[in-house]
């Protein structure tokens, strides 16, 4: 398999997009380090099943992405147990929807920490290992909101715009070291995060959840379709392939045409 022997850390990978990417990379022969929240028994069941299905090593580390010391421990343990870090997928993210003048400061701080600062810490800690190996792939799960804005999402949009800038800087810094850094910018994907966002947006705007889906979320996507998780995980695999070796510093929308408008 194309990525046999490589090691990938995927943050926020116990559900949703991150879990899909972890599964797709494992299918390519990658050893996997899962990270995220959830029921520990369910996480262990998924970890063991992935390891058995693909014949790769699959670890779990419960690092809190708001705490740099725990992020450092995640990387240290990965290197100790699997010998290095070749691929990092910064996927962990949370959302909170609220008018900017009513936005709770603690929510702002947490969203910036998880959606932006955690990616910085993961990258700064993993790059030395990629440089040592002479190969690396950094994939940041951004959002269409890395490119355009929507009301009531000040912290999320600020964080994702920050991810776009971080992606470009990292790409330039390591451009001659066989390491690439790209961002995937999905439109709306039917994940637990978006399911919660539907209810929050309905409350914030005083409309029904069906109106949020049809007239807010999918109104922005000309295809009128949610992006699928496997479309994003297949793209992540592509970014790790030789075909993508000269693609770096990009923000690639998978948004049904949203940002083309």
What is the CATH topology classification name of the largest domain? Rossmann fold
Helix-residue proportion? 40-55%
Instruction: Please report the number of helical segments.
Output: 8
By CATH, the superfamily of the largest domain comes out as NAD(P)-binding Rossmann-like Domain
What labels describe this entry?
Rossmann fold; seven-stranded parallel β-sheet; alpha/beta; 7 strands; 261 residues
Please characterize this protein's 3D structure:
This protein has 261 residues and is α/β, with parallel strands linked by helices. The protein has two domains: 7-187 and 228-251, NAD(P)-binding Rossmann-like Domain (Rossmann fold, 3-Layer(aba) Sandwich); 188-226, no CATH class. Helix content is 48%, strand content 13%. It contains eight helices and seven strands; from the N terminus they run βαβαβαβαβαβαααβ. The chain has helices at residues 16-27, 40-54, 68-82, 105-133, 154-173, 192-205, 209-217, 229-239, and strands at 7-10, 31-34, 58-60, 87-90, 136-141, 179-186, 251-254. It has a seven-stranded parallel sheet, sandwiched between helices. β5, α5 (154-173) and β6 form a beta-alpha-beta unit. α1 packs across α8, α4 (105-133) packs parallel to α5 (154-173) and α6 (192-205) crosses α7 (209-217). The longest helix has 29 residues, at 105-133. The mean pLDDT is 96.
């Amino acid at each position: 398999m194309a990525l046999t022997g490589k090691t990938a850390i995927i943050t926020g990978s116990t559900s949703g997009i991150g879990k899909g990417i972890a599964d797709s990379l494992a299918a390519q022969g990658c050893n996997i380090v899962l990270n995220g929240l959830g029921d520990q028994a369910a996480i262990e069941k998924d970890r063991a099943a992935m390891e058995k299905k693909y014949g790769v090593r699959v670890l779990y580390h419960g690092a809190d992405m708001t705490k740099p010391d725990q992020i450092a421990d995640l990387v240290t343990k990965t290197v100790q147990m699997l010998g290095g870090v070749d691929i990092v997928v910064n996927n962990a993210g949370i959302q909170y929807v609220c008018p900017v003048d009513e936005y709770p400061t603690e929510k702002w701080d947490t969203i910036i920490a998880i959606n932006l600062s955690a990616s910085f810490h993961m990258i700064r800690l993993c790059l030395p290992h990629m440089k040592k190996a002479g190969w690396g792939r950094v994939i940041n799960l951004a959002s269409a909101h890395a490119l355009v804005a929507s009301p009531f999402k000040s912290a999320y949009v600020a964080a994702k715009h920050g991810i776009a800038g971080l992606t470009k800087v990292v790409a330039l810094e390591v451009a001659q070291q066989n390491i690439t850094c790209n961002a995937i910018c999905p439109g709306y994907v039917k994940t637990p995060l978006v399911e919660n966002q539907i209810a929050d947006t309905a409350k914030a705007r005083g409309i029904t959840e069906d109106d949020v889906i049809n007239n807010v979320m999918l109104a922005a996507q000309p295809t009128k379709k949610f992006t699928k998780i496997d479309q994003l995980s297949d793209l992540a695999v592509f970014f790790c392939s030789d075909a993508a070796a000269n693609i770096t510093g990009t923000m690639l929308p998978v948004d049904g045409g949203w940002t083309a408008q």
